[in-house]
Structure formats: structure tokens, C-alpha cells
Amino acid sequence: MSIKVGDHVPDASLGEYIETATDTCAVGPNTFQVSDLVKGKKIAVFAVPGAFTPTCSEQHLPGFLAKADEFKAAGVDEIWCVAVNDAFVMGAWGRSQNVNGKIRLLADGSADWTRKLGLEFDLSSKGLGVRCKRFSALLDDGVVTSLNIDDGGGLDKSDAATLLAQVKA
């Protein structure tokens, strides 16, 4: 059973490749708890089946990147992109897409969070293993207030324009 509007997102560890060291994060992969990251924040999150894949790299991530300032202006504190990849891959993908800190690229390397969300997508027959369904959601202090889940690998419900309209509504 997958998560739905009104549910609190489950906790799990997600990895993020940090490009610049801070007082609390070293350069390289860092692990964060979802429960800590969502506290007191409004977060636009979208998930992709995989970094560097065609639809994800040519449409999904670029769509959110292009509208990042509009999301912020509408009161969104952070934008997350989650994929069942490792933090090194997500960091490299962010550099290749010139994300420059506008979107947090979070790795769900073992699909733990994806499974807890009930949004796993088995692509083993294509040699890709378990991935996350393409979705977008608005989280308010960890509670799902909007949720858009695409069927298969398509991108017709979870795009940036759809979620942004829901944020502004």
C-alpha cells in the first residue's frame, strides 16, 4: 500500500553528496534522517527512477530546476529529488545538470525509503533492479498535502508545473 495525502512520511536514511564542507557536513556523502529533514519545513519532493536516465535528465529534473525560484516564492523551503542511486551518482548528476544547490539530490541507495512509501517499481527485467516510481509530493512538516504518482515510467502527473500549481492553490 502506498502513501497517500494526509499521511506522515516514514523515516529512513537518505544520502546526499555535499560539495562544500560546512560546520555540520563534510565534503562527500553524508547521511540524513528524513524525520529530521522534514521538521518544520515545507518541501516539494519528486522522485525519479534513476539519475542520468533520459526522461529524468531531459524533463523531470530540468522542469523542477527551471521552476525552483517559483517554488521558493510560493513558500517552499526545499526541493528534493530522490532516486534509488548512491550519493556519488546523485552528486555527479547534480553537477552535470548544474543544480548548484537549488535542489537537494537525495540518494535512497537500497530503496529503503521507497519501499516504506510503497512506491517501489521493479525494473529487474531491464537490469535496473528495484527503483522508485516517478512521483511528486508536497510535504508540510512531514505530512503529505499533495501527491502525484505516474504510472510506469511516464511523466504526466508528477511534473514541476503540476506540483507548483498545487503549492500555489
From TrEMBL:
<keyword id="KW-0575">Peroxidase</keyword>
<comment type="similarity">
    <text>Belongs to the peroxiredoxin family. Prx5 subfamily.</text>
</comment>
<keyword id="KW-0676">Redox-active center</keyword>
<dbReference type="InterPro" id="IPR013766">
    <property type="entry name" value="Thioredoxin_domain"/>
</dbReference>
<dbReference type="Pfam" id="PF08534">
    <property type="entry name" value="Redoxin"/>
</dbReference>
<keyword id="KW-0560">Oxidoreductase</keyword>
<dbReference type="InterPro" id="IPR013740">
    <property type="entry name" value="Redoxin"/>
</dbReference>
<comment type="function">
    <text>Thiol-specific peroxidase that catalyzes the reduction of hydrogen peroxide and organic hydroperoxides to water and alcohols, respectively. Plays a role in cell protection against oxidative stress by detoxifying peroxides.</text>
</comment>
<dbReference type="InterPro" id="IPR036249">
    <property type="entry name" value="Thioredoxin-like_sf"/>
</dbReference>
<protein>
    <recommendedName>
        <fullName>Glutathione-dependent peroxiredoxin</fullName>
        <ecNumber>1.11.1.27</ecNumber>
    </recommendedName>
</protein>
<feature type="domain" description="Thioredoxin">
    <location>
        <begin position="3"/>
        <end position="169"/>
    </location>
</feature>
<keyword id="KW-0049">Antioxidant</keyword>
<dbReference type="InterPro" id="IPR037944">
    <property type="entry name" value="PRX5-like"/>
</dbReference>
